[in-house]
Amino acid sequence: MNYSDWEPIYEEILDYFGYDRCENDRSARILERLIGDRDLGIEELEAIIRGKEVLVCGNAPTLCRDLESFDVSELCVIAADGATSTLIKEGILPDLIVTDLDGTIGDIIYANRMGSVVVVLAHGDNIKEIRSVVPNLTSIIGTTHGRPFKSIYNFGGFTDGDRAVFLADALGACRIMLAGFDFEDDTVSEVKHQKLMWAKRLIEGLLNNNMGRDLDGEGDRGN
């Protein structure tokens, strides 16, 4: 996604949730400095995804059951943040983890040390986590909701789940499948529910504008 296409959506999200754009940008600058020369690089990230069938795993309670429908050994597996812990318990090491660092950090660091690439989002509410966690990571990519710069990318998307879908699409997945997604989860907070509605809207919009790709699945617990 070109940033010029994404920016109007981003501005709508900022207005809807009352987020501080300046703080998001400050967080992204901090992330860029902390990553330094440990940036994996877009070419290596693309090599993991391009031409592959990708399974994006959200953190809904249905994830374990949904995984029974897939042979993950044949897929590129992307975990949306908290889904990392479930995948590890199931003996599955995700190829990528898309996170704003509010999942179980120990599991994210463990998976990273075992070979998972961590795609970290910087936003105004996770500066503390960025400063404490990022120095412990290798094979890392930095992302932002705002304007990309240097080694900080923006593939589109808002919550961890839909950002993972946007990333897979942007880097050339031939098919994107979803597991552990539930847009209608009525057990979450009102703010979480609103995020799920945005995730649904964004994924559906991506599908409608990208008829050449396959996207299978149902919803996501999101961030």
Automatic annotation (TrEMBL):
<dbReference type="GO" id="GO:0000287">
    <property type="term" value="F:magnesium ion binding"/>
</dbReference>
<comment type="pathway">
    <text>Cofactor biosynthesis; 5,6,7,8-tetrahydromethanopterin biosynthesis.</text>
</comment>
<feature type="domain" description="6-hydroxymethylpterin diphosphokinase MptE-like">
    <location>
        <begin position="42"/>
        <end position="184"/>
    </location>
</feature>
<dbReference type="GO" id="GO:0004788">
    <property type="term" value="F:thiamine diphosphokinase activity"/>
</dbReference>
<comment type="function">
    <text>Catalyzes the transfer of diphosphate from ATP to 6-hydroxymethyl-7,8-dihydropterin (6-HMD), leading to 6-hydroxymethyl-7,8-dihydropterin diphosphate (6-HMDP).</text>
</comment>
<dbReference type="GO" id="GO:0005524">
    <property type="term" value="F:ATP binding"/>
</dbReference>
<keyword id="KW-0808">Transferase</keyword>
<keyword id="KW-0067">ATP-binding</keyword>
<dbReference type="Pfam" id="PF01973">
    <property type="entry name" value="MptE-like"/>
</dbReference>
<dbReference type="InterPro" id="IPR036759">
    <property type="entry name" value="TPK_catalytic_sf"/>
</dbReference>
<dbReference type="GO" id="GO:0016301">
    <property type="term" value="F:kinase activity"/>
</dbReference>
<dbReference type="InterPro" id="IPR027510">
    <property type="entry name" value="HMPDK_MptE"/>
</dbReference>
<keyword id="KW-0460">Magnesium</keyword>
<dbReference type="GO" id="GO:0003848">
    <property type="term" value="F:2-amino-4-hydroxy-6-hydroxymethyldihydropteridine diphosphokinase activity"/>
</dbReference>
<keyword id="KW-0418">Kinase</keyword>
<dbReference type="InterPro" id="IPR002826">
    <property type="entry name" value="MptE-like"/>
</dbReference>
<comment type="similarity">
    <text>Belongs to the archaeal 6-HMPDK family.</text>
</comment>
<dbReference type="GO" id="GO:2001118">
    <property type="term" value="P:tetrahydromethanopterin biosynthetic process"/>
</dbReference>
<keyword id="KW-0547">Nucleotide-binding</keyword>
<protein>
    <recommendedName>
        <fullName>6-hydroxymethyl-7,8-dihydropterin pyrophosphokinase</fullName>
        <ecNumber>2.7.6.3</ecNumber>
    </recommendedName>
</protein>
<dbReference type="GO" id="GO:0009229">
    <property type="term" value="P:thiamine diphosphate biosynthetic process"/>
</dbReference>
